[in-house]
Amino acid sequence: MKKIKLSICILIVGNALLAAPASINSVNDAVKYGVANNPMIKAQSQVLNAKKNLPKKMGSLSDPKIGFRLNGTPAKNSNYSFDQRRIFINQSFPFLGKLARKNELGNKEVSISELDFEMAKNEVSLSIQSLYYNLVLNKELVKITEKNNKIFENIVNIADIKYRSGKTLQANVLKARVSKGKIEEKLLNLAHQEVKITEELKKWLGGLDNDLISIAFVYPKPIETTFSAAMPSVIFKTLMVQKAITIKNRADQILRVENDRYLPNFSAQVESWNNSGMEHQYSGQIAMTVPWFNEKNSSTIKEATSLKNAKGNQLVDTQNNVKRLLVTLLSDLKTTKETIKLYDEIILKNAALSLSSFQKAFEVDKASFLDYFESEKTLFSLEMDYAKLVNRTYILQAKITSLFKKGVETE
Q1: Handedness of CA 115, 120, 123, 124 (dihedral sign)
Q2: CATH superfamily of 6-74+84-401
Q3: CA 2, CA 246: separation in Å to the nearest integer?
Q4: CA 160, CA 14: separation in Å to the nearest integer?
Q5: From CA 82, how far away is CA 278, in angstroms rounded?
């Protein structure tokens, strides 16, 4: 199939170009462009950038306190009255390890956000691939329909000639004309479907100007799946399972942080003051909190423990769901490929031979109009089904690939 470039000119208000035209020659180019320009991915990228600040935020000391205090201490004898002007600095310190565990909890949050970012990219990639392949399918269906429209036109002409010579019924001519009309209706629907899919694709590419895009598509070279069964090692590498594992690890870390409630915190304070009647004085103090072993602490830990157990069960459920999904997709892909082989080797060849045979027989009055007519309808339907099967293999492969982070080996 001839390739046609997709040129995208990005304009700004004014008389200057913002960027050079982007050229999209394949589905991979479309995916790259979409990942770079899709608003959902840009938003998820900003979320990730925000979450990357969590480890420092959660693992940092609390703000120090600095203050000034003025005490007046008058006495009956004015010779002994004096004022105190005090400056103090106070800093609190958690028990050893507390900040490190909070920092690690922040890292778990970043890991989840990183997985969300990868999943967002895969969602956009899958949508672009599916729409791209559906446009390829739509164009294939148009070609098949146009070819069969010509065949139906030939059937109408032959039936009309035979009707005029009294060798067939007028009803057969009318039936052929109705079928040809339905074919033309299908062409109109396919033209509308192309517009609909194209507009949806533009959205996933980041919103392109209608006047600046012209699209024609071609299937890439077939990509073989690197695994044939939903093995535990394969399931483990899927993004959904990786996220479920990270969420469980975060729940484990939350429990560790909550257990720290039973560890004391410390604070240190240094003061400096001078009096109107005395020299400069200094003082320092160290204090320690005494955690209460009360219901508040125990309830918080029980809550964290229950959430940890819940996330563990959710991990098992996610693994089971991913296994079921992979088994279904792999079976569907295998069945579709075997069906395509059956069409290539037997079904389409025999349907084409049947049509050719009935056409020749009908022209010399050795076959009925109905046999000739039905053989053409059968071939038309089979060719449409075949095009859809080919399209299905590409979409199924894209769905399987979207379960994994790009570049991850699954063997």
Answers
A1: negative
A2: Outer membrane efflux proteins (OEP) (1.20.1600.10)
A3: 46
A4: 62
A5: 8
C-alpha span between 92 and 286 (Å, rounded): 9
Per-domain residue ranges of the chain: 6-74+84-401
Gap between the Cα atoms of 244 and 305, Å rounded: 17
Query: Among candidates 55, 47, 38, 33, which has minimal Cα distance to 253?
Result: 55
The pLDDT profile of the chain, 411 residues, written as one tens digit per residue, is 334 343 333 333 333 333 334 567 789 888 998 999 999 999 999 999 999 999 999 999 889 999 887 766 655 555 555 556 788 899 999 999 999 999 999 999 999 999 999 999 999 999 999 999 999 999 999 999 999 888 888 888 888 887 888 877 888 888 888 888 999 999 999 999 999 998 899 899 987 665 445 555 788 887 777 788 889 999 999 999 999 999 999 999 999 999 998 889 999 999 887 765 566 778 889 999 888 777 788 889 999 999 999 999 999 999 999 999 999 999 999 999 999 999 999 999 999 999 899 888 877 888 888 888 889 889 999 999 999 999 999 999 999 999 999 866 555
How far is Cα 11 from Cα 179, in angstroms, rounded to an integer?
47
pTM given for the model? 0.83
> Among 283, 247, 212, which residue's Cα sits nearest to residue 19?
212
Q: Treating both helix axes as pointing N-terminal to C-terminal, what angle do 348-363 and 369-401 enclose, rounded to 10 degrees?
A: 160
DSSP H or E stretch at residue 29: helix 27-37
Nearest to 3, CA basis, from 22, 23, 26: 26
Residues 220, 243: Cα–Cα separation, whole Å = 31
First-to-final CA distance of the chain:
33
Phi, psi of 286, deg, nearest 5: -125, 130
